[in-house]
Write the structure tokens for this entry.
Amino acid sequence: MAILSREDLRSHLKKRELAPVYLLFGAETYLRDLAAKTIADFNFPDESSLREFNETEFTLTQSDNLQYALASAEQMPMIAARRVIKITEVKIGATAAKDNLKEDYEEILTAYLKRPAKTSVVIFVADELDKRRKMAKLLIENSVAVEFAALEENDLRRWIRDKVKEQNADIDDKAVNHLIGLIGSDARKITSEIEKLAVAALPDKLITYELIEALVPNSREMSNFDLTDHLIAKNKTRALHTLKKILDDGAEPLMLLGLIANNFHRLFLAKEMMTQGVDRKEVARIMRLPYGKQEDFLATARRTDARQFSRIMQRIAEADIAIKTSKGGGGNAGSRLQIEMLVCELAVS
């Protein structure tokens, strides 16, 4: 069965003909979870459906829950047309080590998918799904599978405007661009910030660049700071994991290198001020730290070793030259390799 987009799913649901099994997965988890709720809402159009008795959620972080979930799907609904069974936190990774929907379950899962209960809607919500794996293919081929890819720039802009309108507010182009620049394409975070901004925009309900600048923390910057924190803590595993996330989110390696250098510079500057007895509130003000991140930043600054600063900045400068001269390979792949090598070296030295 072909994999649908979220637009395809919207068209499918407009027909009001629910499928017996859905598989929802992809990078955009907010829209994925919203789709799961929408499917369930379509199944319970009114209060007479006794939703609390006919909707059950099972998480695959607990062993044997797949069996319990499928057994529940076989039960008859109570004064309703269908039951809804959500099976969440499904993981089928690139290797079997991450799986919680293991091939051990193939027999019982196949048996259900080949003859799903007509009186239930089963929704698999996957946090991780490698489409090449056997169990993933089994789900995709026997369900309405929908992939929620990260919103592309034009779609993201339209989506932000729609969310702002839902809050009975308005936003201009400059503000939209700034919001994306601070948060990225994470729809869950954007939704949370829009809700707060709409309240703060009273009474005229106009969300401006200045309002966003004052109230919205720079999520991208803090992710880059998390990377610096892991490097200082010598946690190579977490550093590489954070690096992968930042690069996969579309950060340019050369720009990221500059941010890493800037973060180290800010940390050592903060450490120097604290060493000289400057009050922590004054340090936070000078560093322009969001209130919720002050403790983490200052704790990291205290852990830094001033003696290593010169060596770290020299190594960053070498990586900068290597990227600009295509040492070890040109293009994005070569630049990414240089960043990964730098992170590995800084995290263990």
Notes: The domain at 153-215 is CATH 1.10.8.60 (Helicase, Ruva Protein; domain 3). The chain has a mean pLDDT of 86.
